[in-house]
Amino acid sequence: MPTALAKLNALSQEQAEAEVLKCCGSPRWASAMTVARPFGDVDELLTKAGGTWSSLSPADWLEAFRAHPQIGEKKAAAGQSEEARKWSAQEQSGINDAAAKTIASLAAGNRDYEQRFGFIFIVCATGKSSEEMLAILQARLQNDAETEISVAAEEQRKITRLRLEKLLQQ
Fold this sequence. Notes:
Blueprint lengths: L3 H7 L2 H9 L5 H9 L6 H14 L2 H8 L16 H10 L8 H18 L12 H11 L4 H25 L1
Helix pairs in contact: 2-3, 4-9, 5-9, 7-8
C-alpha cells in the first residue's frame, strides 16, 4: 500500500498543487513544491517546504495569509478548501472556551493589527489558549512593519509544516 508521500509524489501537477495549497495559500509556493517532487522522504519534503517559503517575496506571504481566517473567525478572505477550514478550526480550538471579554479583545486587536500592518494577524495557534493568542497579538502590535511581516511569515512557516504533517497522515 503506497504511503501518503508516495501518493503525493504520484499526483498530477494540478492535483498536487491543490493538495499542498491546503497547507499554504501561496500559489507560487504550491507550484514550486509540486515541481520539486518526487520527495524521497518526509524530512526532504519538510526541508524543501521551509526553504521554498523563505525564498518567496512578501507579496507571496501576504497571499498565503489571506487563506487564513482571523483568530476567532471561521472564514478566510481568500477561498479555503473544506480541509483547510477544518484545520483552521482545530488550530484555533483554544478560542472555543474563551471568555466574552477575551473574544471582544481579540476582535478589537485583529482590527487594530490589520489597520496597522495591512494584513491579518497570523499566529501558529495550535496548543495556544485564547489568552495566549491575545497576549501575542498585543505584543506584536508593538513591532515595526518590517519586523512584523517577518514574524508573521515565520508563523505561517510553522502552520505550513504542521499542515503538511496532517496531509501526510491522511
